[in-house]
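Quick entry between incubations.
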Amino acid sequence: MASIDDVARRAGVSATTVSRALSGRGRISEKTRERVRHVADELGYVASATAASLATGRTMSVGVLVSLTGRWYFATVLESIAARLAPQGYDLTLYDVTGDPAQRRLLFETSLRRGRVDGILALTVTLTDDEIEALRGLGVPVLGLGTPSPRLLALRVDERAVSHAAVAHLRALGHRRIAHLGNDKGPDAGFDVPTQRHRGFVAAMADAAGGPDAAGGPDTAARPDTAGAPLFVQTDFTVAGGRRAALELFAALEPPTAIYAASDELAFGVMFAAREHGLRVPDDLSVIGVDGHEMGAMFGLTTIDQFPRRQGERAADAMLALLDGVPLDPAPLPFELVVRGSTAPPAR
Amino acid sequence: MASIDDVARRAGVSATTVSRALSGRGRISEKTRERVRHVADELGYVASATAASLATGRTMSVGVLVSLTGRWYFATVLESIAARLAPQGYDLTLYDVTGDPAQRRLLFETSLRRGRVDGILALTVTLTDDEIEALRGLGVPVLGLGTPSPRLLALRVDERAVSHAAVAHLRALGHRRIAHLGNDKGPDAGFDVPTQRHRGFVAAMADAAGGPDAAGGPDTAARPDTAGAPLFVQTDFTVAGGRRAALELFAALEPPTAIYAASDELAFGVMFAAREHGLRVPDDLSVIGVDGHEMGAMFGLTTIDQFPRRQGERAADAMLALLDGVPLDPAPLPFELVVRGSTAPPAR
DNA sequence: CTGAAAGCGCTTACAG
DNA sequence: CTGAAAGCGCTTACAG
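Done. Structure below.
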């Protein structure tokens, strides 16, 4: 690989001039610039990222923290981030956040502290308080996408509103016995996405149970359909997890007439379980998911689309802006109910 | 962020000693080492990757070239590569190879030439001859996983054998009219994975048509079921693509009794199309895919599993070995027929 | 407009 | 076992 001195020598100028000619920074005569560029092309010279980084303090790379790279949602967001960063000259360093404690310590205490990136994009991952502090102490902008803490600047969908929309759709169809599949990390979980979705579900069910004219009123308990805590099954966010959780629900004394799954992949699992169990969708069971998964249309799945590709673009753009010192546009990320064949009025 | 001099000062030693204490290279008294380590921990010091890279010439980072990061296969391989690299202290720089020519030029002529990585892992992407030359000229080890050129060192599945296994399975069940969904880049494509799969399919069909005692013999044309070129529909590797291609086949005068799809996602699309078209699987149509997709079991899809996670691990391990100067173990990657409910004897 | 020099923060022979 | 010094390959004030 040619170095800047090779180019300088061959072009009959100083390294300083080569740097200026190629970077476009500083004044330089058009003639000199052209000559230098020509020589650089000839030699296939490109400035070493390492040396340039050390000199400027900027790495031109952003780190992306992902926990479940293989899941459709994350893979999709990741792809759109990469596509957005590259044209701006930024590289993408992928940090896979595993469940292994030793690996995580290595990541947060060492890898991330090596100064290899100018900023960090944290895709919805579960982070401990210590890890969040570690991120904040890095000295580079950190932007989350649906991250689990209010202490992290983040782009977010209003997850409670998502759950409200899902429940409202099912209730409008006439469903009262609605179950939720997802996760809840407990009262301390804060901004964790699955937790928010579950809380939104609980709140929406409570609102509905109270009714428009008797919110939380004494007659609530008199409605057998809505009595007790709403149905909820905790599961990991995979198709297989959705299937298992649904089978569990089907075995209940009073199975739900509708299931609100916290992701489309979970919802697919529910649909597989239904078929396996001899339940027709939507005749015997309505199903709604969240995401906007590419396979949703083929499954005929009603869902709350959160436009993952656009989320990735928004996140990348916001990071680029932060790196330029532009503050974050705090507008919540959009979502939209997409009605397909998997939801219908209950059989009665 | 503390620098090496901060640590040196505080520990009362030279920067040289700090470097040695922390890197473990060179002789140093246990006592000094401990003191330095203690101070480094206290200050939260971690050597700058940039400065260390410039000094050593090693970046401790490997670049991964992917074209369809969002597809299940690639996302899965990527995740397992990341999980394998991190414990070894290597970062992963993700290069998304888009279809946009300008982006690709930027990538191959500039980004990749900045010397940010010690080696490159090219996941099955379509590359032009120029791009392959560009990779070879980088001065770092390049390892492909199913890459489209014999000029690139690569880990590969024997794709022809995969197709032979698929066809053999279908023929053993009694199918004669078998269609293939996939891709073929034409005679110049060389080692391109979809092309190899298609060629393997054509070869397997020809072998079978010839029969054990009359391979390519004159009586071939007399068998109406196998006359003419075997059915083939070109499509992109998505579920939607599989569906469209299948619908096209169903509309043919003589639709196939079995479809061999070049990926599981394509096969899912075929199954959706079959249902839509009123065809029962496997009664009216047998379907077999390739990959070992996590949803395969739920779809009841027969497939040729190629163990993507293990492929990622093998690729990462091989790259790590190459970086240590260990030559590549050229053993082909394993695959395995997994029979599920989507294949059965034709109705007849 | 152009160049000499310092500096970015490490590592590594080379001495001692 | 420890340290002073050079060097990795750039960029950027500072002069001219």
